[in-house]
Specification:
This protein is α/β, with parallel strands linked by helices and about 425 residues long. It has helices at about 10-20, 45-55, 60-65, 100-115, 120-125, 170-175, 270-275, 320-335, 340-365, 370-375, 390-405, 410-415; strands at about 5, 25-30, 40-45, 65-70, 70-75, 80-85, 100, 125, 130-135, 140-145, 150-160, 160-165, 185-195, 205-210, 215-220, 230-240, 265, 270, 280-290, 300-305. Helices cover about 30% and strands about 25% of the residues. Strand 1, helix 1 (about 10-20) and strand 2 (about 25-30) form a beta-alpha-beta unit. Helix 1 (about 10-20) packs parallel to helix 8 and helix 8 runs antiparallel to helix 9. Bound molecules: flavin-adenine dinucleotide. Flavin-adenine dinucleotide binds near residues 7 and 168.
């Protein structure tokens, strides 16, 4: 088979290149950024995703740079403990759960591809901004301009073109040009990293508060970043507000726009207000997604990851679903003699499954536990959590999201190790 042309060298695009290489299929990645260098903040890799990266032989490389998550804990905005559960291997999965800097994950994928694919460096071309695609009976072509100058670059032809170009996908826009901008959830996010002492288990994924009064997600993404054994701690402040700036991963956020919401969050187990004040950088980003599409595939061109199904980050599934897409697409390309049939088979396998995750991330992500507690207590401190909600009810809310997103322990364990 001719090479597969991948548009976008983010998490989905690089994972797809590695998956194809593992199956003996060549790929060329065209990335708009001038270089593959660490940008972004934290990402969670749940066991369904770390399983796929483990099968690519990347478990050790990830384990070296990431924090292996031990537990997930929930608190109200007064710092009262609500619920906790072990995760990943600590919950009996065959695969770990990781908390990782997005840039570290991208570097692990990028270096692995350079090491493994013959002529790897020539197979990942940066500074190439895709402007559109064509498809015919024998192949597909992607067109590019130089990201810096806007000058036209040579087009690239291959067996298929896969749009892995993220939430602002040009490939998607070519087929669904009248979609309009992504849908704003009414929640704005300020994201940052702070060098801080380990808190709780030292590897906890923490959620606290609720969106209408301020919610925090906090988790370490690098261990031992200084001589005092402190960590790089990733945090996301989520506040319901009409304030809306168009999404841009690099938009700088201002402390004065949101710190007041969390000013009294000084708990004996974590000084959240201090953590926010100590940020090395703050980025502002609206929580947005898009309605699921009726189709991704047009001839020999298809979509993958955020280009196909951007979702709210409330279930930590954006990167994970892109990784699952890459696995499914590589398998289909390997097992179907015809490329258009392979792309259709991939779409059948993944479109409805990811639409369900988009909807679940809107309506019933794991933090509905916090919403329920917030509503039942009228946003006041409680006496005993058992009088507000039972552990069984919270476990059931958490488990139902896992089932929709495809990382409940039973269904993951029942899959073969292939
Ligand atoms: C700079 C950046 C920072 C991010 N930071 C975070 C974060 O801190 N936390 C988090 O949870 N998620 C973050 N994300 C999103 C997260 O990586 C994705 O939701 C998830 O990994 C899905 O991956 P993806 O490959 O589909 O999309 P992405 O990882 O977004 O990758 C898309 C890639 O396509 C490239 N691209 C875009 N347009 C074109 C074009 N026309 N031609 C060629 N290439 C193009 C982009 O530069 C990018 O490298 C970030 C994404 C980006 C691009």
């Amino acid at each position: 088979m001719d090479d597969v042309i991948i548009v976008g060298g983010g998490i989905g695009g690089l994972t797809l290149a590695l998956m194809l290489h593992q199956r003996g299929i060549g790929a060329r990645v065209h990335e708009a950024a001038p270089a593959i260098k660490p940008i972004g903040v934290g990402i969670s890799l749940l066991p369904h995703a770390s399983r796929e990266l483990g099968l690519l032989g990347l478990a050790d490389a990830l384990g070296e740079v990431a924090v292996t998550t031990r537990d997930s804990r929930f608190f109200n905005r007064f710092g009262q403990f609500v619920y906790s559960e072990p995760v990943g291997r600590y919950a009996g999965y065959d695969w770990p759960q990781f908390q990782i800097h997005r840039g570290d994950l991208q570097q692990v994928l990028y270096r692995a591809y350079l090491d493994r694919a013959a002529g790897g460096a020539e197979r990942v071309l940066t500074g190439h901004r895709c402007t559109g695609t064509d498809s015919d009976a024998r192949g597909a072509t992607a067109h590019f301009v130089d990201s810096a100058t806007g000058r036209a670059l040579p087009s690239t032809r291959g067996a298929a073109v896969v749009g892995c170009d993220g939430i602002h996908s040009v490939v998607r826009r070519q087929f669904f040009g009248d979609e309009g901008p992504p849908v704003y959830s009414g929640v704005n996010m300020w994201r940052g990293t702070t060098t801080w002492e380990p808190f709780l288990s030292g590897s906890t994924y923490l959620r606290a508060g609720w969106l209408t009064v301020g919610k925090m997600v906090i988790y370490p993404i690098r261990h031992n970043v200084d001589s005092q054994g402190r960590q790089m701690v990733n945090w996301v402040a989520e506040v319901q507000t009409d304030r809306y700036n168009e999404q841009d991963w690099d938009r700088v956020g201002r402390l004065e726009d949101f710190h007041h919401v969390f000013a009294d969050w000084t708990f004996d187990w974590l000084d959240v207000a201090g953590l926010i004040r100590g940020a090395e950088q703050i980025l502002e980003y609206p929580m947005v997604d898009r309605d699921p599409l009726p189709r991704w595939t047009h001839g020999r061109v298809t979509l993958l990851g955020d280009a196909a199904h951007p979702m709210y980050p409330r279930g930590s599934n954006g990167a994970g679903q892109a990784i699952l897409d890459a696995r499914a697409l590589a398998d289909c390309l390997q097992s179907h003699p015809s490329v258009p049939e392979a792309l259709q088979a991939y779409e059948r396998q993944r479109l409805a499954a990811t639409a369900a995750v988009v909807h679940a991330s809107r309506n019933a992500p794991p933090d509905v536990i916090l919403k329920t507690v917030h509503e039942r207590t009228g946003d006041r401190p409680f006496g005993r959590i058992e009088d507000v909600i039972t552990t069984e009810e919270m476990a059931s809310l958490s488990d139902s999201y896992k089932r929709v997103a495809g990382y409940d322990r039973e269904s993951l364990s029942s899959r073969t190790r292939q």
